[in-house]
Amino acid sequence: MAVHKAPNCLIQLLLLVWKNFSMLLGRKCYMMGLIIFFAIIPLILMSLRLIPLLRRKPQIRGPIPTFGLHGRIPSNIYFSPQAPLLEALVKEINGSKITAFQNSRKLQEALVDFPDENDVVIGIDFAEGWTEWPDQLSFVLRVPKLSASDDDMFGLFGSYSYYENGFLAVQQALSKAHINHKCKQLNKCPKEIKFPEFRDLPSPPIFATVYTNYLQTIGQFFIEMIACFVVVSLTKYIVQEKELQLKETLHLLGVGSGLQWLAWYVQSFIILLIGSAVLTLCWKVVLPNSEISFLPFTHWSLVLFVLLVLGHCWICFSFLMSSLLSTTSLLPLITVLSVIATQFPYSFLHSVGCPLGLNAFISLFLLSGYTLLVDGVCNWDFYGVGLQWDNLFEIAWPGDTISVGHILLIMLLASFVSLLICLYMEQIRPGTYGVPRPWHFPCSCCCPTENLLPYKRLFYRCLGINRAAPDVERSEVELIEADPEGKTVGVQIIGLSKTFGKMEAVRHISFDMFEDQITVLMGHNGAGKTTLISMLAGFIPPTSGTALVNGYDIQREPRQARRCIGLCPQQNVLFKHLSSASHIWFFSRLRGLRGAEVKAEVDKYLEQLNLKGKKKAAARNLSGGTQRRLSVACALCGGVKVLICDEPSTGLDPGARRELWKLILEAKKGCTVLLTTHQLDDGEVLSDRMVIISDGQVRCIGSLPFLKKQVDASCLLTCETRKRCDVDKLTSLISLHVGSIIPFSIMGRDVCYKLPLSKSISFSRMFRDLEHQKNDLKVRGFGMSSVGLEEIFMSFGEEERDSRNSGGAEKNDEADDDVENEDYDQEESEPNCGSQWRAMMIKKYLSFFENKVYFVLLLLIPIVYYLSTLISATDPQNLPRVSMNVQEYGSYGVSILVSDPERSGEMSPAYYTIARLAGTNVVVKTIDEPMEEYVKNAWATPEGKHEIMFMPMAVELASPLVGWVGPRHFLYAAPMTLNLVYNVMAHELLGPEIRLKVTSAPYQKRSTVLNLFIDDRTLRFQTYVMCYVGLAMILFSHLIIQERDSHMKMQQEVSGLSMVTYWLSHLVFDMLVYSILALALLLPLYNYAPWYNLLTLLLFLGLTSLIFVYFLTLVLSATLLAVTLVLLSGILAFYLIQLVGEQALIYNVIYIVICIAYLTPLVAGYYCLAKCFQFSTLCADSNFESEDPDLAFLKNI
């Protein structure tokens, strides 16, 4: 048989990529998912810009002028401690009702319990109760916390809560009063003091509104859904190949793991490249009736580049997951949980303006890095600049501490780390059929294991450990036929052993197989046949011993040995979505055939195996017998040197078996063939040599005639009798010739006798007497047949009694004979409703116990979240304090601009005062031109804009001093500017001893609901709750889908189980388990709404979701991946309804679509949960008045 040169690595890679793409068309669900995610949904998102509110560029022009807010004195002022001097100071704030308290604790209680929701109160907590006016006036201003973002140092859209509640007015009034009193006390000031003025530095326009925030959330969640779809699908297909032994079969053909990973990467990246290009096109196209696209300012090439980097990270994460999993059972749930878990670092650790190192750590995780990436890209877009190649490694605003470019680099680094972990895990955990390497194998390159053997022996000798060599059980010499002369050894097995734990599956087997011969390996179930074949093929490593395959040692030269083998395993090793002809073409090409040889090989095997009519049919659509014949053809094609077939005739009809015999007999020329079978006629027809093993040991080796001589084999005499035949007289006649004998069996008119071959000399005389006396004996005729092979197998292949496991296959003879009641009451065996329910509950419990790990994980998610919030939570009545000092912004790379037009050479003293107050971390820059002129010129250039973006304040040294408040995203810019300027003024007028120290200490009112509206954080939290419910539904649907796919549901129905009982038992048990999860979910939720409302909602949500999932699996025959995507798509619908909800009043079609969306449980549950969160607010006020009509309208809804 000609040996073909193996294709090079490039050809192998192209063949693997061709194989992967060829299977795409057969994966209809996967192709439908690609069309939905990369075509339909992007078009829908693109069309959102046609909504009237989103057609034009939204723009917030500039900040609210601060000078108009300095006079908003609150109507109520509380202060402490109670002291005459302080009371006189506070009374200088005109227009307020003043109340004094003895200490800070009583002030806190009064502020928290302030009764009037529509009135404004502010608290002033002085450092101490002074009896004389201090040089440093230190006070803490207490204002109510209005939103969760009040704790942040930055806000993209700004926050004017400090202006509206009188903070600035009280701060300025106290600062003026302090300077006035000290001027009078020290008598250093002029008669008319010129207090500072305040103006605003320009703020960049923000091209965003509430609706564009919804667009961002929709786009972000849409990409997350694509990530889940890609990761789950790719992981599933890779694990399937590992689970079905396809990966190791390709190893046999010389295709390394690296090439297989690379082929998967190339195929997935090409698909994502096309999808990303379509997505980029949809997001950058400006529709005719719209002014802007979905992502208006970012450059299209960067959109594509970011999507490709994300796709690369998804593929690497899929590789990592596939190396950790070895079965597809619950794979979608495990993978989705793993993907969602990568969001936790961002959710728990990230905040606006958090340190660079922490952001870099968060970027290492898939979804956390992606969320940071979205924030960075959208921030550039909100400012109307968009992400460009020249600002890729720059931050858009001070609230970002890491640029988009650096996030991409860190994500790429994390992906390469994932690849390294994947390659390592594949080596030490290759799956059921692979050969694992030791966990320290990377270190064995510099220090091979052989070098450690002397030290190992020395260690055993020092400890007195004697390791005796195992006893080698050898077969009896008389049961082994001598090797044939003139034959070439194809496979030589030398002392192969395999131990699984304490069980020896194969015990020191040694024998040779020869070219041009078929060696049949026979033995009972569990004798070690498949284990022996797996060791020869390299699927599992031998415990000891070795084998030479075509001259190559399977231990030292596994790759060369594997390339010589063509294997047809016990199960069909086929690519489900690849056609019959493509299978033979693919395997022939991998074995080195080219051009016309490949076509001839395909035609040959399609003809010989009668597969021409089904050459284009996918393997999964073929019958079991046809799949078996195709597996044999894949093992034979390409001219293999060693053919190993593990029960190849399983599932074949008699005609197909004979065709297979003919094919194997033709293939043995120039080839060594090893065949295992339970069919005795296969062994009789095909075997040149026969090896019988039992309990992992060789019992006999030889040709069929040789083995018949080693056992007292027999022949079967069958006599066809007439009526009134005397069987005893017939038996007596036969006994005269062969000795004492009894009938072996009597079936109808056929009487059978087993005649020993040792009496074959007397057979002729016996036949002569039977022929002469057959009329007297009433015998119509007789015949002889051989039963030698069966007796040989039963003699040598019988397993030892003490090694047989007692189980269902072994019957108790006494029990069989001791049947007291032959007329068994059939009514007792009929199933009743109670027994069916009991059986279903037991089945559900056992299945649930098998998947207990995933239930515990789901149970722990809300508990861990709750505990983490408890640990990180601060006392609502002891919120963080912020000093109104510009040094608080020192770690964010900001600067202060000082304008001194009248400077002549040296810096003025005011400059040094500002530099001292700013500290070392804030850069103080000085200019000679007027501030207004400088700002106007700087704002006209990108560099100047960037400088002002990082400038929380500026000071103009004029008469009077002018404080310039920085852009809106510096939330504390106004009070810090006011504090700095008044300190500079006090220093200039009165000296360095006179100072002002202001601190902000917000408090939380007991009657205030913080989340008056559904802000981003609450919106995200509601989404997480719905995702949690969706994950629970995936777990519950797993058993139903598993029973449906394995036909267990059909078997239960055939056994008499009512389908009403089937579905109701599932519903009852799943609801009980879900109730436990719902109680756990109440822990992080109970602070948002009354617990009884939440529990009722969660229970109804679980009931409807279970029924919805059952509907998907029953009516639509959905797979676990399809159920996952349908549930997650409901979450995407939340945000779409937020955007298009108002259009339902205009377009009836949108109204109908929204009503249909409400039929899905997660969409309805989402809005019910939102209403629960707003329960206290809705019940607190029936009418809310505000100067802002939009605010009042939203509140009253």
TrEMBL record:
Residues 813-830 have a biased composition (Acidic residues). It is a multi-pass membrane protein. Residues 491-720 form the ABC transporter domain. Residues 798-831 are annotated as: Disordered. Keywords: ATP-binding, Membrane, Nucleotide-binding, Transmembrane, Transmembrane helix. SMART domains: AAA. It is found in: Membrane. Its main location: membrane. The chain crosses the membrane at residues 30-51, 221-239, 259-281, 302-324, 330-349, 361-383, 403-424, 853-874, 1021-1041, 1062-1085, 1091-1112, 1119-1137, 1149-1169. This is ATP-binding cassette sub-family A member 3 isoform X3. The gene is LOC108042231.
